[in-house]
Structure formats: structure tokens, C-alpha cells
TrEMBL record:
<dbReference type="GO" id="GO:0015385">
    <property type="term" value="F:sodium:proton antiporter activity"/>
</dbReference>
<keyword id="KW-0406">Ion transport</keyword>
<dbReference type="GO" id="GO:0006885">
    <property type="term" value="P:regulation of pH"/>
</dbReference>
<feature type="transmembrane region" description="Helical">
    <location>
        <begin position="149"/>
        <end position="168"/>
    </location>
</feature>
<feature type="transmembrane region" description="Helical">
    <location>
        <begin position="223"/>
        <end position="241"/>
    </location>
</feature>
<keyword id="KW-0812">Transmembrane</keyword>
<feature type="transmembrane region" description="Helical">
    <location>
        <begin position="280"/>
        <end position="307"/>
    </location>
</feature>
<keyword id="KW-1133">Transmembrane helix</keyword>
<keyword id="KW-0739">Sodium transport</keyword>
<keyword id="KW-0050">Antiport</keyword>
<keyword id="KW-1003">Cell membrane</keyword>
<dbReference type="InterPro" id="IPR004670">
    <property type="entry name" value="NhaA"/>
</dbReference>
<feature type="transmembrane region" description="Helical">
    <location>
        <begin position="86"/>
        <end position="107"/>
    </location>
</feature>
<feature type="transmembrane region" description="Helical">
    <location>
        <begin position="54"/>
        <end position="74"/>
    </location>
</feature>
<feature type="transmembrane region" description="Helical">
    <location>
        <begin position="119"/>
        <end position="137"/>
    </location>
</feature>
<feature type="transmembrane region" description="Helical">
    <location>
        <begin position="319"/>
        <end position="337"/>
    </location>
</feature>
<keyword id="KW-0813">Transport</keyword>
């Protein structure tokens, strides 16, 4: 079955948005209480010591697949892609840091002490959603715009992963963590063996078993289980990693992310005037579109000037503004960090979720409208330039399959 259409960033973005809207709508109908009960339901027994609710099986279990795919993409970009040298990575790194720092500062300023622990929430950029909006409305923009947005979002995700590992870990069980490290090494070794024996089913089964065991050990260690997906994706040899990405990406885009969006967005809207919502809601709503816009744009301009990027290779202010607007689409990683930051305060999870959805929607609408208008200033992209990304993707597939 040909599932390549699910890899299309426009399709992925629409699936995410549709699932989130469906979850939010159902949660505010007569089905809301039943849906909430289903999300918090536990199995009548534990699985090797793990006792997770249905919602946590999505965020701690299925979402690992998404983070594995992201990690494979990270590794590719830093070794063979647009970030494979310090010079190439410098500008998007500076822009990403600006897009992390300013939203965090805005959040701290608006949220106050009660919601201070949620400061990482508006620092994330959703790769799939942001690129989907750009692909839908900015078809004539130079490929350099997409390249910088992709690079910025990749670095942004890496920073978000570090935040999850460092700031949202309450207690670490060292024995489990040590065994998880052994599992990562074993996964790396099996991947090296697999390179020369492609198609070996025993090796594939062994890789899957080691991955599942490592995920369980990370979950038991107290570190968020999604970190297992990141570590495994980073250490797997390129050929099996690309092969796994090709097989898992349709499942990640078509099932995992929409299910996560549906689960996270299915919250009951508080029956209070909007002016009475907490500072957490307003901090996220302001920090995502405003903080990302000014943080990315200013840092991008400063980075290009400081690194003396040749004028012919620089992105213009108007292009950086478009990237900054789209970078405010936090969505997936922002929703996850919201749940981790406010796991002891259900009411803040609700308001934080509404803040992420509202802030991301504002960024998507403004960013989509802006790049659509900006795109009119450019001539139609010629066939060679339009197909360059498709050719790169085909080359990656050939390397993985060959």
C-alpha cells in the first residue's frame, strides 16, 4: 500500500488540526465526561510495573515513535542535511535560540509565580504543522526559506527534548537508567551489524525487542519515556535508521500525532469569562506568536550580520518575519511540555492546553496569510527548484533500501 501521501506536510498539518478540533469539540459536548473518564482509565493490571492511564499510554508510549522519527531526522540534518557544518548550522541555531529566549521571558513576565514552571511551553515549534502551512501558502517562496524554517524547527525540537529530559524529571532511578544505557548500546551494536545484513528478519526482531525493553527501562527510571525514542533514533546506523523512518513515518503522521492531538486537546473549556483565565493561558497566547516572531526575526538578522553572511545568501527581513510567524506554531511539543509542567494541577493543564491551541492557531492564521501575500512577490518556482526536496527525499530512500 502506497502511504507516501501521509508524508506530505500539508496532509500531516491538516490531520493534526482536524484531530485537535475534534477532541476539543467532543470534550465540550455531552460526551465530554465519558471521554475524560476514558482518558484517565487504567488497565486492571500493571504491565511489568507500569501503571499508566490511557492518555499516558499515548504520551509515554505511542509518542515515542514520533520522537524516534524526529531523532532520525535530527541526525540526518546534522550529518548530511542543511546543518552538516558549523557554518550552515550557525544562523538557524542563533535564530532558534532567539525564538526560545524571548517567548520564555514573555511567559515569565505574564504568567507570574503560580505558573512559572511552565516557561518551556511556548519555546517549541511544531515541524510538521509549520512546514505544512508554509507548503500550503508559500509555494513561490525561495527554497532557502523552507530550509531555514526546517533547520530552526529541528534545533528547536532538540532544545525541547533537552528541556523534557532536564526540567521535567523529578526523580531518577539510577539502576534502571544504567540498564537503559546498556540497551541503547546494544541497539547501536545491532544497528551496525544490520548495515551489512539488510533484510535479516532475526536482526529486525532483535532491534524491536531491544527498543521496547529500553523504552520500558527509561520509563521505569523516572525520565520521560519519549527520551528513549530520541536516544535510539540518534544511535541507530544511517541505513537501518532511514529504513525505519520510511516505515514508521506514515504511522507517526497518520496515527500517533493525530491521536496525541485529539487526546491533548480534549479539554473542557472553563465556563468563565475570558478575562478571568489565569496568567498561564495569556502567557502562552502572547509568547507563542509574539515571542517567536520577534525572537526569531531579530536573532536571525543579528546572526546573519554577526557571521557576515554574504548579502546574496541572506534572507531578507520580510522572509525572516514569515519564518518567525510560522515558528509560533508550537502544538505537539508545546502540548507535551504543558502536560509535564502542570501534571500536578489539572486546571493549569486545561488552561495551558487552550493557550497552546489558541497561540498556535493565531500563529498559523497570521503566518499563513502573511506567506501567502509574500509569495505573490516572487515568480513561480521553476520545476528544477520545486523538485529538489523530492529528489533529496528519493536519494535518502534509495540509500535506505539499497
Amino acid at each position: 500500500m502506497n502511504l507516501s501521501w501521509i508524508r506530505n506536510p500539508q496532509v500531516s498539518a491538516m490531520l493534526l488540526l482536524g484531530a485537535a478540533i475534534l477532541g476539543l469539540v467532543l470534550a465540550n459536548t455531552a460526551l465530554g465526561p465519558a471521554l475524560d473518564a476514558a482518558k484517565h482509565a487504567h488497565l486492571p493490571f500493571t504491565i511489568l510495573g507500569l501503571d499508566l492511564s490511557a492518555a499516558h499510554w499515548v504520551t509515554d508510549g505511542l509518542l515515542v515513535v514520533f520522537f524516534f522519527v524526529v531523532a532520525v531526522e535530527l541526525r540526518y540534518e546534522f550529518t548530511q542535511g542543511d546543518l552538516n557544518s558549523i557554518a550552515k548550522a550557525a544562523v538557524p541555531t542563533i535564530a532558534a535560540l532567539g525564538g526560545v529566549a524571548l517567548p520564555a521571558i514573555i511567559y515569565f513576565t505574564v504568567a507570574g509565580e503560580d505558573g512559572a514552571q511552565g516557561w518551556p511551553i511556548p519555546t517549541a515549534t511544531d515541524i510538521a504543522f509549520a512546514l505544512g502551512v508554509l507548503a500550503l501558502f508559500g509555494r513561490r517562496l525561495p527554497t532557502a526559506v523552507r530550509a531555514l524554517l526546517l533547520a530552526l524547527a529541528v534545533i528547536d525540537d532538540l532544545i525541547g527534548i533537552l528541556f523534557i529530559a532536564v526540567f521535567f524529571t523529578e526523580q531518577v532511578e539510577v539502576p534502571y537508567l544504567a540498564l537503559a544505557a546498556v540497551g541503547v548500546v546494544a541497539f547501536w551494536a545491532l544497528g551496525r551489524v544490520y548495515r551489512g545484513r539488510r533484510g535479516s528478519w532475526p536482526l529486525r526482531i532483535a532491534l524491536v525487542l531491544v527498543a521496547v525493553i529500553t523504552w520500558w527501562l527509561v520509563a521505569m527510571s523516572g525520565i520521560h519515556a519519549t527520551i528513549a525514542g530520541v536516544l535510539l533514533g540518534l544511535v541507530l546506523a544511517p541505513a537501518p535508521a532511514e529504513s525505519a523512518r520510511l516505515k514508521l513515518e506514515p504511522f507517526s503522521n497518520g496515527v500517533v500525532l493525530p491521536l496525541f492531538a485529539f487526546t491533548s486537546a480534549s479539554v473542557a473549556i472553563p465556563q468563565v469569562p475570558i478575562t478571568e483565565l489565569s496568567g498561564v493561558f495569556w502567557a502562552i497566547v502572547i509568547a507563542l506568536p509574539v515571542g517567536k516572531l520577534f525572537g526569531v526575526t531579530i536573532a536571525g538578522l543579528v546572526g546573519q550580520a554577526a557571521l557576515r553572511v554574504p548579502k546574496a545568501d541572506r534572507l531578507r527581513l520580510r522572509e525572516l518575519i514569515g519564518i518567525g510567524l510560522l515558528a509560533g506554531i508550537g502544538f505537539t511539543v508545546s502540548l507535551l511540555m504543558n502536560e509535564l509542567a502542570h501534571r500536578s494541577a489539572e486546571e493549569l493543564i486545561v488552561e495551558g492546553t487552550l493557550g497552546v491551541l489558541t497561540g498556535s492557531l493565531i500563529s498559523a492564521v497570521l503566518g499563513g496569510a502573511y506567506v501567502a501575500l509574500l509569495s505573490r512577490r516572487y515568480p513561480p518556482v521553476d520545476a528544477a527548484e520545486r523538485s529538489s526536496s523530492d529528489a533529496q527525499e528519493q536519494l535518502r530512500r534509495t540509500d535506505a533500501e539499497g
